[in-house]
Amino acid sequence: MLGAVLFTTTSCNDWLDVLPNNEQVTDDYWKSKEDVEAVIASGYYYMRQCVPNFIKWGELRGGSIYALSSSDSKLQDFNMTPTHSLCDWSNIYKVIGMANSVIMYAPSVDDDTYYDAIRNSHLAEAYFLRAYCYLLLVKNFKEVPLVMQAYVNDNASFDLAKSSENEIIAQIKEDVKTALATGAAKGTFEEDWATKGRATKWALYALMADACLWSEDYDQCIEYCNLILNATDAFRPVFMTNTNDWYTMFYPGNSNESIFELNWDYSQNQTNNFNSLFTLTVTSPLKPTNRATELMKQETQALKDAGMTEDGRMGRMLMATYVPDNGQVAAWASSNSYLIWKYYGTDVPDITGGARAHQDANFIIYRVAEVMLMKAQALTMKGQGSWSEAVGLINKIRHRAALGNFKDIDITAADAATQISQLDEITLLEEILNQKELELMAEGKRWYDLLWLGRIAGGKYKTQFISKVIEGNQTTNQQWVMSVLQDPNAWYMPIPQADIEHNKLLVQNPYYSSTK
To answer: Are 340 and 321 in contact (CB under 8 A)?
Structure first.
Protein backbone atom coordinates (compact mmCIF):
# COMPACT_ATOMS: atom_id res chain seq x y z
CA MET A 1 0.00 0.00 0.00
CA LEU A 2 2.69 2.41 0.88
CA GLY A 3 5.58 2.04 -1.56
CA ALA A 4 6.06 5.73 -2.32
CA VAL A 5 8.15 8.19 -4.21
CA LEU A 6 8.91 11.48 -2.54
CA PHE A 7 9.67 15.11 -3.20
CA THR A 8 12.42 17.35 -1.90
CA THR A 9 10.73 20.69 -2.61
CA THR A 10 7.17 21.98 -2.65
CA SER A 11 6.78 23.98 -5.84
CA CYS A 12 3.74 23.64 -8.08
CA ASN A 13 5.67 21.25 -10.31
CA ASP A 14 6.39 18.98 -7.34
CA TRP A 15 2.73 18.80 -6.45
CA LEU A 16 1.81 17.95 -10.04
CA ASP A 17 4.47 15.34 -10.62
CA VAL A 18 6.14 12.56 -8.71
CA LEU A 19 9.86 12.03 -9.01
CA PRO A 20 11.13 8.47 -9.57
CA ASN A 21 13.22 8.19 -6.41
CA ASN A 22 11.52 4.94 -5.35
CA GLU A 23 12.18 5.62 -1.68
CA GLN A 24 10.28 3.68 0.97
CA VAL A 25 8.64 5.75 3.70
CA THR A 26 10.03 4.09 6.82
CA ASP A 27 9.83 5.07 10.47
CA ASP A 28 13.30 6.63 10.34
CA TYR A 29 12.45 8.83 7.35
CA TRP A 30 10.78 11.68 9.22
CA LYS A 31 13.34 14.43 9.93
CA SER A 32 11.85 17.74 8.80
CA LYS A 33 8.67 19.52 7.81
CA GLU A 34 9.75 19.11 4.17
CA ASP A 35 9.63 15.34 4.64
CA VAL A 36 6.03 15.59 5.83
CA GLU A 37 5.14 17.90 2.96
CA ALA A 38 6.60 15.39 0.53
CA VAL A 39 4.43 12.53 1.75
CA ILE A 40 1.30 14.71 1.60
CA ALA A 41 2.22 15.60 -1.97
CA SER A 42 2.46 11.89 -2.78
CA GLY A 43 -1.06 11.48 -1.40
CA TYR A 44 -2.39 14.04 -3.87
CA TYR A 45 -0.37 12.40 -6.63
CA TYR A 46 -2.04 9.04 -6.05
CA MET A 47 -5.43 10.73 -5.81
CA ARG A 48 -4.89 12.10 -9.31
CA GLN A 49 -4.21 8.55 -10.48
CA CYS A 50 -7.67 7.62 -9.18
CA VAL A 51 -9.58 10.10 -11.35
CA PRO A 52 -10.53 7.69 -14.17
CA ASN A 53 -12.10 5.43 -11.55
CA PHE A 54 -13.68 8.42 -9.80
CA ILE A 55 -15.49 9.25 -13.04
CA LYS A 56 -16.45 5.70 -14.00
CA TRP A 57 -17.53 4.68 -10.50
CA GLY A 58 -19.66 7.79 -10.13
CA GLU A 59 -21.22 7.83 -13.59
CA LEU A 60 -21.52 4.50 -15.40
CA ARG A 61 -24.33 3.08 -13.26
CA GLY A 62 -26.21 6.39 -13.09
CA GLY A 63 -27.68 6.57 -16.59
CA SER A 64 -26.17 9.93 -17.62
CA ILE A 65 -22.84 8.76 -19.03
CA TYR A 66 -22.25 5.37 -20.63
CA ALA A 67 -19.21 3.47 -21.86
CA LEU A 68 -18.76 2.12 -25.35
CA SER A 69 -16.04 -0.25 -24.12
CA SER A 70 -17.34 -3.77 -23.57
CA SER A 71 -15.10 -4.00 -20.50
CA ASP A 72 -16.25 -0.77 -18.83
CA SER A 73 -19.86 -1.57 -19.70
CA LYS A 74 -19.70 -4.45 -17.22
CA LEU A 75 -20.07 -1.86 -14.47
CA GLN A 76 -23.01 0.01 -16.01
CA ASP A 77 -24.74 -3.31 -16.80
CA PHE A 78 -24.24 -4.69 -13.28
CA ASN A 79 -22.17 -7.59 -14.57
CA MET A 80 -19.05 -6.99 -12.51
CA THR A 81 -16.80 -9.80 -11.32
CA PRO A 82 -14.18 -9.63 -8.54
CA THR A 83 -11.35 -9.86 -11.07
CA HIS A 84 -12.47 -6.86 -13.12
CA SER A 85 -9.94 -4.01 -13.25
CA LEU A 86 -12.58 -1.44 -12.23
CA CYS A 87 -12.76 -3.08 -8.80
CA ASP A 88 -9.14 -2.13 -8.15
CA TRP A 89 -8.92 0.09 -5.10
CA SER A 90 -5.13 0.00 -4.73
CA ASN A 91 -4.49 3.66 -5.58
CA ILE A 92 -7.15 4.77 -3.12
CA TYR A 93 -5.49 2.74 -0.38
CA LYS A 94 -2.17 4.30 -1.38
CA VAL A 95 -3.68 7.71 -0.65
CA ILE A 96 -4.93 6.37 2.68
CA GLY A 97 -1.45 4.96 3.36
CA MET A 98 0.16 8.34 2.78
CA ALA A 99 -2.38 10.00 5.07
CA ASN A 100 -1.86 7.39 7.78
CA SER A 101 1.90 7.96 7.65
CA VAL A 102 1.51 11.70 8.14
CA ILE A 103 -1.01 11.25 10.97
CA MET A 104 1.30 8.76 12.68
CA TYR A 105 4.67 10.48 12.26
CA ALA A 106 4.17 14.23 11.75
CA PRO A 107 3.51 14.84 15.46
CA SER A 108 6.95 13.48 16.38
CA VAL A 109 9.05 15.27 13.72
CA ASP A 110 11.78 17.16 15.54
CA ASP A 111 12.41 20.27 13.46
CA ASP A 112 12.84 23.71 15.05
CA THR A 113 11.11 25.33 12.06
CA TYR A 114 8.16 22.94 12.18
CA TYR A 115 5.74 25.15 14.09
CA ASP A 116 2.52 23.73 15.49
CA ALA A 117 0.39 25.71 13.02
CA ILE A 118 2.24 24.15 10.06
CA ARG A 119 2.16 20.68 11.60
CA ASN A 120 -1.57 20.86 12.33
CA SER A 121 -2.25 22.19 8.83
CA HIS A 122 -0.44 19.16 7.38
CA LEU A 123 -2.46 16.88 9.65
CA ALA A 124 -5.71 18.53 8.51
CA GLU A 125 -4.82 17.72 4.90
CA ALA A 126 -3.99 14.13 5.82
CA TYR A 127 -7.29 13.68 7.66
CA PHE A 128 -9.15 15.06 4.63
CA LEU A 129 -7.39 12.68 2.24
CA ARG A 130 -8.12 9.67 4.42
CA ALA A 131 -11.73 10.60 5.11
CA TYR A 132 -12.56 11.42 1.49
CA CYS A 133 -11.12 8.13 0.26
CA TYR A 134 -13.09 6.16 2.82
CA LEU A 135 -16.33 7.92 1.87
CA LEU A 136 -15.75 6.90 -1.76
CA LEU A 137 -15.01 3.34 -0.70
CA VAL A 138 -18.20 3.20 1.36
CA LYS A 139 -20.28 4.51 -1.54
CA ASN A 140 -18.85 1.88 -3.87
CA PHE A 141 -18.17 -1.17 -1.70
CA LYS A 142 -20.27 -0.43 1.43
CA GLU A 143 -17.92 -2.30 3.78
CA VAL A 144 -14.13 -2.26 3.45
CA PRO A 145 -11.07 -2.74 5.67
CA LEU A 146 -10.60 0.34 7.85
CA VAL A 147 -6.83 0.77 7.81
CA MET A 148 -5.79 3.23 10.48
CA GLN A 149 -2.07 2.58 10.82
CA ALA A 150 0.91 3.27 8.62
CA TYR A 151 2.54 0.19 7.08
CA VAL A 152 6.14 1.30 7.35
CA ASN A 153 7.76 -1.93 8.51
CA ASP A 154 7.09 -5.66 8.60
CA ASN A 155 5.59 -5.71 12.09
CA ALA A 156 2.02 -4.90 11.06
CA SER A 157 -0.39 -7.58 9.92
CA PHE A 158 -1.89 -7.20 6.47
CA ASP A 159 -4.86 -9.40 7.37
CA LEU A 160 -7.76 -7.12 8.21
CA ALA A 161 -11.50 -7.79 8.14
CA LYS A 162 -14.06 -5.39 6.73
CA SER A 163 -15.51 -2.76 9.02
CA SER A 164 -19.20 -1.93 8.90
CA GLU A 165 -20.47 1.08 7.00
CA ASN A 166 -21.52 2.72 10.26
CA GLU A 167 -18.04 2.28 11.72
CA ILE A 168 -16.40 3.80 8.66
CA ILE A 169 -18.80 6.75 8.50
CA ALA A 170 -18.19 7.40 12.19
CA GLN A 171 -14.43 7.44 11.55
CA ILE A 172 -14.85 9.81 8.60
CA LYS A 173 -16.74 12.25 10.78
CA GLU A 174 -14.20 11.89 13.57
CA ASP A 175 -11.36 12.60 11.13
CA VAL A 176 -13.03 15.80 9.92
CA LYS A 177 -13.74 16.98 13.46
CA THR A 178 -10.15 16.23 14.49
CA ALA A 179 -8.82 18.13 11.49
CA LEU A 180 -10.93 21.17 12.31
CA ALA A 181 -10.44 21.12 16.08
CA THR A 182 -7.01 22.81 16.06
CA GLY A 183 -8.17 25.67 13.84
CA ALA A 184 -5.10 25.14 11.66
CA ALA A 185 -6.91 23.96 8.52
CA LYS A 186 -6.20 26.72 6.05
CA GLY A 187 -8.77 28.85 4.26
CA THR A 188 -6.21 29.79 1.63
CA PHE A 189 -2.66 28.83 0.71
CA GLU A 190 0.17 31.09 -0.36
CA GLU A 191 -0.30 30.13 -4.03
CA ASP A 192 -3.65 30.47 -5.77
CA TRP A 193 -3.57 26.99 -7.34
CA ALA A 194 -2.93 25.43 -3.91
CA THR A 195 -5.98 27.14 -2.39
CA LYS A 196 -8.10 25.04 -4.71
CA GLY A 197 -5.72 22.11 -5.25
CA ARG A 198 -4.99 21.29 -1.60
CA ALA A 199 -7.47 20.51 1.15
CA THR A 200 -8.69 23.60 3.02
CA LYS A 201 -11.20 24.05 5.81
CA TRP A 202 -13.78 24.55 3.05
CA ALA A 203 -12.98 21.11 1.63
CA LEU A 204 -13.38 19.61 5.11
CA TYR A 205 -16.78 21.31 5.51
CA ALA A 206 -17.94 19.99 2.12
CA LEU A 207 -16.73 16.48 2.90
CA MET A 208 -18.52 16.48 6.24
CA ALA A 209 -21.74 17.69 4.62
CA ASP A 210 -21.41 14.90 2.06
CA ALA A 211 -20.84 12.24 4.74
CA CYS A 212 -23.75 13.52 6.83
CA LEU A 213 -26.10 13.56 3.86
CA TRP A 214 -25.08 9.99 3.04
CA SER A 215 -25.73 8.85 6.62
CA GLU A 216 -29.05 10.74 6.77
CA ASP A 217 -27.82 13.14 9.46
CA TYR A 218 -29.62 16.05 7.89
CA ASP A 219 -29.22 18.62 10.66
CA GLN A 220 -25.46 18.27 10.65
CA CYS A 221 -25.38 18.25 6.85
CA ILE A 222 -27.14 21.61 6.82
CA GLU A 223 -24.82 22.93 9.53
CA TYR A 224 -21.68 22.14 7.51
CA CYS A 225 -23.18 23.40 4.26
CA ASN A 226 -23.90 26.69 6.02
CA LEU A 227 -20.28 27.01 7.11
CA ILE A 228 -19.55 27.45 3.40
CA LEU A 229 -22.71 29.17 2.18
CA ASN A 230 -22.92 31.69 5.03
CA ALA A 231 -19.19 32.37 5.36
CA THR A 232 -17.92 35.95 5.32
CA ASP A 233 -14.18 35.29 4.85
CA ALA A 234 -12.70 37.48 2.15
CA PHE A 235 -11.39 34.51 0.14
CA ARG A 236 -14.19 32.03 0.75
CA PRO A 237 -15.60 29.90 -2.10
CA VAL A 238 -18.58 31.75 -3.58
CA PHE A 239 -21.38 30.63 -5.89
CA MET A 240 -21.03 32.45 -9.21
CA THR A 241 -24.45 33.79 -10.13
CA ASN A 242 -23.55 35.06 -13.59
CA THR A 243 -24.39 32.58 -16.34
CA ASN A 244 -21.49 33.90 -18.40
CA ASP A 245 -19.03 32.74 -15.74
CA TRP A 246 -20.16 29.11 -15.66
CA TYR A 247 -17.52 27.79 -18.01
CA THR A 248 -14.64 29.40 -16.11
CA MET A 249 -14.94 26.58 -13.59
CA PHE A 250 -13.50 24.29 -16.26
CA TYR A 251 -11.36 26.73 -18.18
CA PRO A 252 -9.06 27.93 -16.81
CA GLY A 253 -10.25 26.21 -13.60
CA ASN A 254 -9.60 26.95 -9.91
CA SER A 255 -12.54 29.36 -10.00
CA ASN A 256 -14.09 31.25 -7.09
CA GLU A 257 -16.81 28.60 -6.93
CA SER A 258 -14.37 25.73 -6.59
CA ILE A 259 -13.82 24.21 -3.16
CA PHE A 260 -11.35 21.45 -4.01
CA GLU A 261 -10.06 20.15 -7.33
CA LEU A 262 -7.18 18.06 -8.58
CA ASN A 263 -4.79 20.10 -10.72
CA TRP A 264 -2.80 19.35 -13.86
CA ASP A 265 -0.56 21.80 -15.74
CA TYR A 266 0.77 21.11 -19.21
CA SER A 267 3.41 23.82 -18.82
CA GLN A 268 4.88 21.53 -16.17
CA ASN A 269 4.64 18.53 -18.52
CA GLN A 270 1.52 17.23 -16.81
CA THR A 271 -1.43 15.67 -18.63
CA ASN A 272 -4.50 13.96 -17.24
CA ASN A 273 -5.03 11.57 -20.15
CA PHE A 274 -8.74 12.40 -20.25
CA ASN A 275 -8.42 11.54 -23.93
CA SER A 276 -8.75 7.93 -22.83
CA LEU A 277 -12.20 8.81 -21.46
CA PHE A 278 -13.59 11.63 -23.61
CA THR A 279 -12.66 12.27 -27.24
CA LEU A 280 -13.87 14.70 -29.89
CA THR A 281 -15.56 12.02 -31.98
CA VAL A 282 -18.87 10.20 -31.96
CA THR A 283 -17.01 7.11 -30.75
CA SER A 284 -15.84 8.76 -27.53
CA PRO A 285 -15.23 6.05 -24.89
CA LEU A 286 -17.58 7.85 -22.48
CA LYS A 287 -20.52 9.90 -23.71
CA PRO A 288 -23.97 11.05 -22.59
CA THR A 289 -26.78 8.52 -22.76
CA ASN A 290 -29.80 9.10 -24.96
CA ARG A 291 -31.78 10.06 -21.88
CA ALA A 292 -29.19 12.63 -20.77
CA THR A 293 -28.98 13.98 -24.30
CA GLU A 294 -32.72 14.52 -24.33
CA LEU A 295 -32.51 16.45 -21.06
CA MET A 296 -29.79 18.64 -22.58
CA LYS A 297 -31.95 19.30 -25.62
CA GLN A 298 -34.92 20.23 -23.47
CA GLU A 299 -32.87 22.67 -21.45
CA THR A 300 -31.33 24.23 -24.54
CA GLN A 301 -34.74 24.53 -26.21
CA ALA A 302 -36.12 26.27 -23.14
CA LEU A 303 -33.37 28.86 -23.47
CA LYS A 304 -34.03 29.30 -27.18
CA ASP A 305 -37.72 29.75 -26.45
CA ALA A 306 -36.77 32.48 -23.99
CA GLY A 307 -35.00 34.35 -26.79
CA MET A 308 -31.39 33.38 -26.21
CA THR A 309 -29.21 32.77 -29.24
CA GLU A 310 -26.74 30.00 -29.90
CA ASP A 311 -23.80 32.27 -30.57
CA GLY A 312 -23.94 33.58 -27.01
CA ARG A 313 -23.59 31.98 -23.65
CA MET A 314 -26.83 30.13 -23.09
CA GLY A 315 -26.66 28.04 -19.98
CA ARG A 316 -24.95 24.80 -19.10
CA MET A 317 -25.55 22.75 -22.20
CA LEU A 318 -23.88 24.83 -24.89
CA MET A 319 -20.97 25.41 -22.53
CA ALA A 320 -20.57 21.82 -21.33
CA THR A 321 -21.31 19.81 -24.46
CA TYR A 322 -21.17 20.11 -28.20
CA VAL A 323 -22.60 18.30 -31.18
CA PRO A 324 -20.11 16.76 -33.63
CA ASP A 325 -20.68 16.78 -37.34
CA ASN A 326 -19.08 13.83 -39.13
CA GLY A 327 -16.65 13.46 -36.22
CA GLN A 328 -15.54 17.10 -36.33
CA VAL A 329 -16.17 19.90 -33.86
CA ALA A 330 -19.10 21.81 -35.30
CA ALA A 331 -21.72 24.43 -34.56
CA TRP A 332 -24.75 23.56 -32.49
CA ALA A 333 -26.81 21.28 -34.69
CA SER A 334 -29.61 18.74 -34.61
CA SER A 335 -27.44 15.66 -34.14
CA ASN A 336 -28.27 13.24 -31.35
CA SER A 337 -24.60 12.78 -30.43
CA TYR A 338 -23.84 15.28 -27.70
CA LEU A 339 -20.35 14.89 -26.28
CA ILE A 340 -18.73 16.16 -23.08
CA TRP A 341 -17.04 19.49 -23.74
CA LYS A 342 -16.13 20.72 -20.24
CA TYR A 343 -12.84 18.79 -20.19
CA TYR A 344 -11.86 19.86 -23.71
CA GLY A 345 -13.17 23.34 -24.40
CA THR A 346 -11.53 26.66 -23.72
CA ASP A 347 -14.46 28.99 -24.28
CA VAL A 348 -17.88 29.04 -25.94
CA PRO A 349 -16.70 30.59 -29.25
CA ASP A 350 -14.26 27.73 -29.84
CA ILE A 351 -17.21 25.37 -30.13
CA THR A 352 -16.94 25.95 -33.89
CA GLY A 353 -13.21 26.10 -34.27
CA GLY A 354 -11.17 24.10 -31.83
CA ALA A 355 -10.62 22.73 -28.39
CA ARG A 356 -8.20 22.80 -25.48
CA ALA A 357 -4.74 22.27 -26.91
CA HIS A 358 -3.55 20.08 -24.05
CA GLN A 359 -5.07 17.48 -21.76
CA ASP A 360 -4.64 19.36 -18.51
CA ALA A 361 -8.18 20.16 -17.39
CA ASN A 362 -8.61 19.97 -13.63
CA PHE A 363 -11.02 17.55 -11.99
CA ILE A 364 -13.39 19.16 -9.50
CA ILE A 365 -14.13 17.20 -6.33
CA TYR A 366 -16.39 19.76 -4.63
CA ARG A 367 -17.84 23.12 -5.70
CA VAL A 368 -20.38 25.44 -4.17
CA ALA A 369 -23.27 24.52 -6.48
CA GLU A 370 -23.11 20.94 -5.22
CA VAL A 371 -23.07 22.12 -1.60
CA MET A 372 -26.20 24.19 -2.27
CA LEU A 373 -27.98 21.17 -3.72
CA MET A 374 -26.79 18.89 -0.89
CA LYS A 375 -28.36 21.36 1.52
CA ALA A 376 -31.55 21.35 -0.55
CA GLN A 377 -31.67 17.55 -0.26
CA ALA A 378 -31.26 17.71 3.50
CA LEU A 379 -33.89 20.46 3.82
CA THR A 380 -36.35 18.42 1.78
CA MET A 381 -35.91 15.44 4.09
CA LYS A 382 -36.48 17.70 7.12
CA GLY A 383 -40.11 18.20 6.17
CA GLN A 384 -42.40 20.71 4.50
CA GLY A 385 -41.43 23.49 6.88
CA SER A 386 -37.99 23.55 5.22
CA TRP A 387 -39.15 23.25 1.62
CA SER A 388 -39.29 26.98 0.90
CA GLU A 389 -35.57 27.29 1.56
CA ALA A 390 -34.92 24.19 -0.56
CA VAL A 391 -36.88 25.68 -3.47
CA GLY A 392 -34.93 28.91 -3.09
CA LEU A 393 -31.64 27.01 -3.50
CA ILE A 394 -32.99 25.12 -6.51
CA ASN A 395 -34.02 28.39 -8.12
CA LYS A 396 -30.54 29.88 -7.64
CA ILE A 397 -29.07 26.94 -9.56
CA ARG A 398 -31.73 27.25 -12.26
CA HIS A 399 -31.23 31.00 -12.58
CA ARG A 400 -27.50 30.58 -13.09
CA ALA A 401 -28.37 28.20 -15.93
CA ALA A 402 -30.67 30.94 -17.31
CA LEU A 403 -33.78 28.90 -16.46
CA GLY A 404 -36.93 30.11 -14.76
CA ASN A 405 -38.16 29.23 -11.27
CA PHE A 406 -39.02 25.64 -10.40
CA LYS A 407 -42.72 25.23 -11.20
CA ASP A 408 -42.89 29.04 -11.39
CA ILE A 409 -42.56 29.25 -7.60
CA ASP A 410 -41.16 32.58 -6.43
CA ILE A 411 -40.46 32.02 -2.75
CA THR A 412 -40.85 35.77 -2.07
CA ALA A 413 -44.36 35.88 -3.58
CA ALA A 414 -47.51 36.01 -1.49
CA ASP A 415 -48.78 32.67 -2.80
CA ALA A 416 -45.45 30.83 -2.40
CA ALA A 417 -46.53 28.96 0.73
CA THR A 418 -49.64 27.67 -1.01
CA GLN A 419 -47.67 26.53 -4.05
CA ILE A 420 -45.06 24.79 -1.92
CA SER A 421 -47.76 23.03 0.14
CA GLN A 422 -48.94 21.38 -3.07
CA LEU A 423 -45.57 19.73 -3.65
CA ASP A 424 -44.61 16.32 -2.32
CA GLU A 425 -41.27 15.04 -1.13
CA ILE A 426 -40.37 12.89 -4.14
CA THR A 427 -41.22 15.67 -6.62
CA LEU A 428 -38.86 18.02 -4.84
CA LEU A 429 -36.12 15.39 -4.56
CA GLU A 430 -36.40 14.54 -8.24
CA GLU A 431 -35.95 18.19 -9.22
CA ILE A 432 -32.89 18.48 -7.00
CA LEU A 433 -31.36 15.34 -8.49
CA ASN A 434 -32.22 16.54 -12.00
CA GLN A 435 -30.39 19.80 -11.35
CA LYS A 436 -27.41 17.93 -9.93
CA GLU A 437 -27.35 15.68 -12.99
CA LEU A 438 -27.21 18.57 -15.47
CA GLU A 439 -24.98 20.79 -13.35
CA LEU A 440 -22.45 18.07 -12.50
CA MET A 441 -22.55 16.04 -15.73
CA ALA A 442 -19.48 13.75 -16.01
CA GLU A 443 -18.07 14.93 -12.66
CA GLY A 444 -18.54 11.52 -11.05
CA LYS A 445 -21.63 12.25 -8.94
CA ARG A 446 -24.78 10.84 -10.59
CA TRP A 447 -24.68 7.23 -9.38
CA TYR A 448 -24.18 8.26 -5.77
CA ASP A 449 -27.19 10.58 -5.95
CA LEU A 450 -29.39 7.77 -7.27
CA LEU A 451 -27.98 5.33 -4.74
CA TRP A 452 -28.71 7.82 -1.95
CA LEU A 453 -32.31 8.01 -3.18
CA GLY A 454 -32.63 4.23 -3.11
CA ARG A 455 -31.20 3.95 0.41
CA ILE A 456 -32.88 6.74 2.36
CA ALA A 457 -35.67 6.23 4.86
CA GLY A 458 -35.27 2.46 4.86
CA GLY A 459 -35.63 2.10 1.10
CA LYS A 460 -38.72 4.31 0.84
CA TYR A 461 -37.84 5.24 -2.75
CA LYS A 462 -36.27 1.97 -3.87
CA THR A 463 -38.79 1.61 -6.70
CA GLN A 464 -38.06 5.11 -8.01
CA PHE A 465 -34.32 4.46 -7.74
CA ILE A 466 -34.53 1.28 -9.80
CA SER A 467 -36.78 2.93 -12.38
CA LYS A 468 -34.30 5.77 -12.86
CA VAL A 469 -31.38 3.38 -13.30
CA ILE A 470 -33.34 1.36 -15.87
CA GLU A 471 -34.48 4.50 -17.68
CA GLY A 472 -30.89 5.64 -18.18
CA ASN A 473 -29.36 2.29 -19.10
CA GLN A 474 -29.15 1.69 -22.86
CA THR A 475 -26.70 -1.18 -23.10
CA THR A 476 -28.36 -4.17 -21.46
CA ASN A 477 -31.69 -5.88 -20.90
CA GLN A 478 -33.99 -3.88 -18.65
CA GLN A 479 -35.40 -7.01 -17.05
CA TRP A 480 -31.88 -8.00 -16.03
CA VAL A 481 -31.27 -4.65 -14.34
CA MET A 482 -34.66 -4.85 -12.63
CA SER A 483 -33.86 -8.31 -11.32
CA VAL A 484 -30.36 -7.48 -10.12
CA LEU A 485 -31.28 -4.28 -8.31
CA GLN A 486 -33.94 -5.99 -6.21
CA ASP A 487 -31.00 -7.14 -4.09
CA PRO A 488 -29.44 -4.09 -2.34
CA ASN A 489 -26.13 -5.96 -2.11
CA ALA A 490 -25.89 -5.66 -5.91
CA TRP A 491 -25.83 -1.87 -5.58
CA TYR A 492 -22.16 -2.15 -4.60
CA MET A 493 -19.07 -3.51 -6.35
CA PRO A 494 -17.25 -6.73 -5.51
CA ILE A 495 -14.16 -6.73 -3.33
CA PRO A 496 -11.08 -7.15 -5.59
CA GLN A 497 -10.22 -10.84 -5.88
CA ALA A 498 -6.50 -10.18 -5.43
CA ASP A 499 -7.19 -8.70 -2.00
CA ILE A 500 -9.43 -11.61 -1.06
CA GLU A 501 -6.55 -13.97 -1.86
CA HIS A 502 -3.94 -12.01 0.09
CA ASN A 503 -6.02 -11.03 3.12
CA LYS A 504 -7.16 -14.08 5.10
CA LEU A 505 -9.80 -12.11 7.00
CA LEU A 506 -11.39 -10.40 4.01
CA VAL A 507 -14.67 -11.83 2.71
CA GLN A 508 -16.45 -11.06 -0.52
CA ASN A 509 -19.45 -8.73 -0.67
CA PRO A 510 -22.61 -10.87 -0.33
CA TYR A 511 -24.00 -10.49 -3.86
CA TYR A 512 -20.75 -11.74 -5.40
CA SER A 513 -20.10 -14.56 -2.98
CA SER A 514 -19.96 -18.00 -4.58
CA THR A 515 -22.33 -19.17 -1.87
CA LYS A 516 -25.03 -16.58 -2.53
So the answer is: yes
